[in-house]
């Protein structure tokens, strides 16, 4: 039996719970997880569980293996709206995040950023710290890349999302980014999840290529347990036997996640497929399946990209894609998949170029 | 070196090819595959290959492992249109095939068939021979089921597609069905593929849950090699580690197949997911990704279905789904994914109820 | 509720069971599966199930989805011994089945067969009907291949196992083979399983590359339900994301199957790995993990094999392998993995060359 | 073209290489990776590559994607021997690492450690920092756990291996552990790999459950690039569709890795299977397939373990297992799988209890 306590647990409530566990002949283990107290008791009978669940200060009792709670509809019945600059994920419409795989130079970044803004996307992506399979690959520009991203934001008004891979870099990346990306390979990096849970930055949490949907949710739970509820989940393909695509995009995850969590879900067809030619059709499918957004790689000159060029689409393709996605959104608007709550009057429309910078940039 | 010959190969051309192989110091093996002669020669140098490829009567030379040829754009540059009754797969729009998992009784079948027709679907599905994991499961009504299907067709005017599992049943099923379904578990049943290749019935070939996209194409090649070019491919989910859905629907297969074959591709979200709740959103995604059709299970009383009840949607849901799919088709009509060639003026509209029966029914 | 009846079910018992179902307000469906009557009743409460289970003539009641029964320890507590010529699978020691992938010519076959016998293997394998991904590949010599196998048996005294793929060929193959192989791609070919269940030939049932261990057992159940209990299961690798080997050999399946079934289990490292270099070490691992046997491909000239040459080991390697396996068997003999029941005094030793032919050969 | 330079690269050699790249009309990117300089040049023709490869100071040129080099036989032809206390991985025989999943208390740890020593294992394992799917699970005792491990080492003389998950903890864990474990979920945590590459502690690098064999090697390359060549690889099961075991143990990885790397490979049957009952047979298979060692979870009272109890074997089972492994090693000793080079006269025998502590313990 694992007892998740409420954030407003009082010392008296805590004592009462511990006494209950002791009454079962067991010395409780007490831990702090993010903002909450977690109490480990003995294997529980249903009766004992019911007793404990009724105590003040108890949020949830897990009988066997603990799982997710804060991310579920049990904890929060309304959809969570995640605000990144003027973009609101989880409201109506399918938002578009776009940008190059890696930040390579100021010049290229500004070129791409303007194209992204002009195409109608509303968040800019770009990696300053890149996870790479081989140590000899280009792994990003680091702090210099963050500074370039900040300039691209200043120039275009688009908020930026960028990856953080190391617990030691969370503070640094938070100074520059509007949204922290946890990459696929880090979804099971629990110290990192804990660390971003301590910030109050929106988080883009990508599903591990080997992770089940439930594991994606328990990873998100790490962030929410730290008190950071601004989490967007991202389906980006899972590893299967099929090799025509780099990974197999699991679009079923979108409606399944809608059943299990109040968090918005976006889809990354670029990393899933690894092939520019099919990115637009997969992005359209993501809109039709009900995703809150898509994140695509775009480049003004994919053949010269230092990372993942073969999967980047061109600015013109992005423009057409944004149009197609809006057409699908409109076609399905009266249908059941459209969330009803609105966070702002028109979140799909990107911020104007004069949008004031929402984060301090050194 | 494997040499695939043309169907109009003359004896003289054949002699010339064999002489060429002999000239390489190798005694050729000659086989007949469907309508074609296949000649197995020695491992080939590029030069030798070029020589052979130039000979009259040679359609294609495979250097190492032979693969697919007749299904590729190399063999046929136009999209193949597959006609099933009045429905034309491969033309514009996303067609809907619907019906119960298994044919259970005349009464239920007629109920469902009318609902399918009224919802706007254009082909009726239903299993008379059902592959079942356990031998103690209901495995379909067999010939009685085929007769029920024929009555449902007579009543509604909808053409019917139904599965054949045994080489010994191909003739029987062909007497009743408008389209022969090769199920996922039979995709690697090469004698069966050969047998349906000998018929001139349209074939619905489902991807094996363990099969790569290229293997789906080589299985289709078996049918085309027999002279039957009326094949529709079907993506129906692959087996992965994820268990929230029965299989993982691989929608990327649709645009990938469009790059590799002239055959139309439909999507089966019912078997892929195994969960009624997410079938409509996956079917919408299939339309948006560019599928030629979807095949969904529908039942008037899913809780009483003898097979796969949990994945069947209700008639009302089907009606809404057909509407959503048409809306997506319309929204994307000017986009690049819409095939330009039209097979008939309006293939999406189902045949009227008085549609004359295209196949003799006992 | 699915009721599996005993083979000696009397008409009176049957009536009694049907009356019980009727008493639950449900009209039972009655089917014949192999040698047994199967009765489909309504969804069952535990109480109703207990009532039915007590009735005479009832072997087993499945509450939800039916699964395997005859293959389990519930049905038979002793290990099943499967006799193929003088070889006994399921007794002590790890038997070796060896031979070429495909039967190519009498000369090559006799060469390989003598090498197999001399190395100490006790069953000869070789394919006359070969499942091939592409229709243009060599698919075996058919009846001619069976005749060659019969000559190899006459020459060496080794019993032969060969694959059957088509229900229409079961009778023919049974005339020649001592053991019928159901290949990986046919594990879900239910009509074929039913057909071999009607014979009284030992069956070598290979796990599908996409099949779970439980599905392998329900496929074996098809054969046992037909009254044929001489089934050897074969682990031959499953399809995963890893591509260094053709498939991933799942050796855990051997001890897991030992927990779930009384049938012997052999391992095929040749098809699993697709690489000659690692076949011997995997075969040693199979012996150490407790397999009843291994099946390996061997060829006197792998570079000239018309099928799967790269995975065939040489006769000398086979000789060393048989030695290593016997050493492992001896080293672990007093350990818990050695079955205690002996079927014959020395099943590991192959039959002498003058072994009389156990099957009529035309 | 990515150029990996030698550790003894001189400034003049570097200039020469950069000039060569410049001569190709490209401005080179220069990075430092661990102890080495890496130079990124333009896409290379074969001719250009050959030119560059001939230059002094160049260790290896990768044409397209860079991969592993330092871990391969190209870089080092002799097997690497990894010394952990008196244990030498990579020499003859199969070593046994054993201990509880998590360090729970001093009392339990000492109990288990004595049992591990008495059974004949030669390294003690135990987790002080535990990666856990849910944030509410017991995640280890942290520094207190490390101190308990140090006491267990002092008591038994066994060197200890324990996991490090966070770059910020590498220094702390290195103070206590004889070997640093990188867990399956961290195999793609590149900052962590870089950090342990800076230490001179032996590293136990577990294969990610989603990682290919080649990716395991490129992750090891991160450590070697830092100058730390004492790396033991660990196969611990990959994620597949099969659910009878937690993961699918890929024993083929052992001989495949032997072909590709000079690093020793051990096998973890406990985490792979998740089921105590089959751990011993899988460990025997690991010995037979040629692994340098096995790592198994053992507990004196598995039912009370706070983590992974169901997969821990009992001390008696461990004793039998060590005996079986030695028997297999002896049976196969003259066979080809036994490495010929000896690091010490008898590495299998564990250190005596009075073994002086090889690492300073606070």
CATH architecture group name of the largest domain in chain A: Alpha-Beta Barrel
CATH topology of the largest domain in chain A: TIM Barrel
CATH superfamily of the largest domain in chain A: Aldolase class I
Tell me, what's the shape of chain A?
Answer: elongated
Largest interface (C-beta under 8 Å): A-B, 45 and 45 residues
Q: How many separate domains make up the residues of chain A? A: 2
State the major sheet of chain A.
8 strands, parallel, barrel
What does this structure look like?
- With 362 residues, chain A is α/β, with parallel strands linked by helices.
- The first copy, chain A, folds into two domains: 2-62, Alpha-Beta Plaits; 82-331, Aldolase class I (TIM Barrel, Alpha-Beta Barrel).
- Chain A has eleven helices and 14 strands.
- In chain A, helix 3 runs parallel beside helix 4, helix 6 crosses helix 7 (213-225) and helix 10 (279-289) packs parallel to helix 11 (315-331).
- The model of chain A is unreliable at 336-362 (pLDDT under 50).
- The A-D interface holds A 2, 4, 29, 31, 33-34, 38, 40, 62, 65-68, 131-139, 165-168, 185-186, 188-191, 193-194, 208-210, 215, 218, 221-222, 225, 239, 306 and D 2, 4, 29, 31, 33-34, 38, 40, 62, 65-68, 131-139, 165-168, 185-186, 188-191, 193-194, 208-210, 215, 218, 221-222, 225, 239, 306.
């Amino acid at each position: 039996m694992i007892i998740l306590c409420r954030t407003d647990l009082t010392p008296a409530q805590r004592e009462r719970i511990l006494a209950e566990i002791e009454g079962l002949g067991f010395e409780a283990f007490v831990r702090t997880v993010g903002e909450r107290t977690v109490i480990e008791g003995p294997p529980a009978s249903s009766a004992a569980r019911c007793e404990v669940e009724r105590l003040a200060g108890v949020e949830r009792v897990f009988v066997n293996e603990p799982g997710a709670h804060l991310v579920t509809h049990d904890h929060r019945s309304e959809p969570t709206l995640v605000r990144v600059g003027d973009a609101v994920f989880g409201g109506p419409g399918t938002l578009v995040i776009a940008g190059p795989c890696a930040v390579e130079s100021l010049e290229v970044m500004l070129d791409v950023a303007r194209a992204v803004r002009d195409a109608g996307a509303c968040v800019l992506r770009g990696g300053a710290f890149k996870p790479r399979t081989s140590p000899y690959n280009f792994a990003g520009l680091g702090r210099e890349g963050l500074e370039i991203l900040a300039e691209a934001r200043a120039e275009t008004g688009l908020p930026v999302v960028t990856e953080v891979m190391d617990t030691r870099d969370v503070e640094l990346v938070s100074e520059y980014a509007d949204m922290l990306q946890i990459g696929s390979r880090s979804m099971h990096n629990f110290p990192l999840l804990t660390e971003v849970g301590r910030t109050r930055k929106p988080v883009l949490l990508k599903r591990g290529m080997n992770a089940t949907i439930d594991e994606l949710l328990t990873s998100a739970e790490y962030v929410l347990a730290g008190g950071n509820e601004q989490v967007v989940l991202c389906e980006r393909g899972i590893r299967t036997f099929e090799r025509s695509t780099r990974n197999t995009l699991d679009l079923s995850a979108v409606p399944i996640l809608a059943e299990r969590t109040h968090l918005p879900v976006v889809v990354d067809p670029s990393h899933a497929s690894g092939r520019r030619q099919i990115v637009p059709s997969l992005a359209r499918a993501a809109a039709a399946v009900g995703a809150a957004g898509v994140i695509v790689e775009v480049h003004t000159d994919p053949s010269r990209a230092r990372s993942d060029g073969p999967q980047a689409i061109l600015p013109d393709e992005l423009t057409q894609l944004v149009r197609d996605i809006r057409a699908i959104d409109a076609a399905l608007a009266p249908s059941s998949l459209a969330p009803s709550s609105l966070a702002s009057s028109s979140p799909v429309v990107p911020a104007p170029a004069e949008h004031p910078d929402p984060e301090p940039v050194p």
